[in-house]
Design brief:
43% of the residues are buried. This protein has a seven-stranded mixed sheet with strand order 3-2-1-4-5-7-6. The protein has eight helices and seven strands, in the order ααβαβαββαβαααββ. By secondary structure, it is α/β, with parallel strands linked by helices. The chain has a single domain (15-211), classed as 3-Layer(aba) Sandwich (Rossmann fold), CATH 3.40.50.150.
Length: 215
């Protein structure tokens, strides 16, 4: 894949902010990140992908929580991946770091048990979201699952106000309008649901869970 084909939005929108991502991102949605890890419930021996891993916050946390799992992190941003690799080496977490796009995954069919993503999907256009969900379903094993932590539809007066403002930024309209769950069904997932929610300064956050077969 050429550099021209690797079109993406850096973790904080601009490359010059990438070195500061961990400092800014770790406090944001920290409780929901912990809940996502709890719900993913990785088992030793499973093949797990952190999709749009950025600087590796979640991939490293996954590997540290279950050392016996095989964890990979994929991102288009070479700078972010370099930071992730450096931090993983610092803490002794053995993780496979791959450069690529969410909607063109470099993995074989039926090769992964779990795909997880946090605060990446809202960066994608509607068409790229749809392609990403189809790609994730392709690489998941028949009993595999997708877990996403990202912006979602409002559920209170405060979050309705937040969503009304934030839906005009980047590609978040699909998230705030409730399109993510229907898009899972359109991609061929057998079941999908919201599995938790919370409120942040930037709007409502949802944990989404989708199963390739009827789980």
């Amino acid at each position: 894949m050429t550099e021209r084909e690797l079109q993406y939005i850096p973790p904080l929108g601009w490359h010059w902010l990438t070195p500061f991502y961990d400092w800014l991102a770790k406090p944001f949605g920290a409780a929901l990140r912990r809940e996502l890890l709890r719900q993913v419930a990785i088992q030793p021996g499973q093949q797990v992908l952190d999709l749009g891993c950025g600087t590796g916050i979640m991939a490293i946390a996954l590997k540290q929580s279950v050392p016996g799992a095989a964890v990979a992190g994929l991102d288009a941003d070479e700078q972010a991946l370099a930071i992730a690799q450096g931090e993983a080496e610092r803490v002794g977490a053995e993780i496979q770091w791959d450069r690529g796009l969410a909607y063109s995954l470099p993995y074989p069919d039926n090769s992964l048990d779990v795909v997880m993503s946090s605060f990446m999907i809202h960066h994608l256009t509607t068409a790229h979201k749809a392609r990403t969900f189809r790609e994730v379903r392709r690489v998941l094993r028949p009993d595999g699952s997708l877990f996403i932590l990202d912006f979602g539809p409002p559920f209170s007066p405060l979050t309705r106000t937040q969503a009304a403002v934030m839906k005009h930024l980047e590609q978040t309209a699909d998230n705030y309008s409730g399109r993510i769950l229907p898009m899972f069904a359109e991609a061929g997932f057998a079941s999908a649901r919201g599995a938790g929610h919370g409120t942040t300064l930037f709007g409502p956050i949802i944990i989404y869970v989708a199963h390739k077969s009827g789980g």
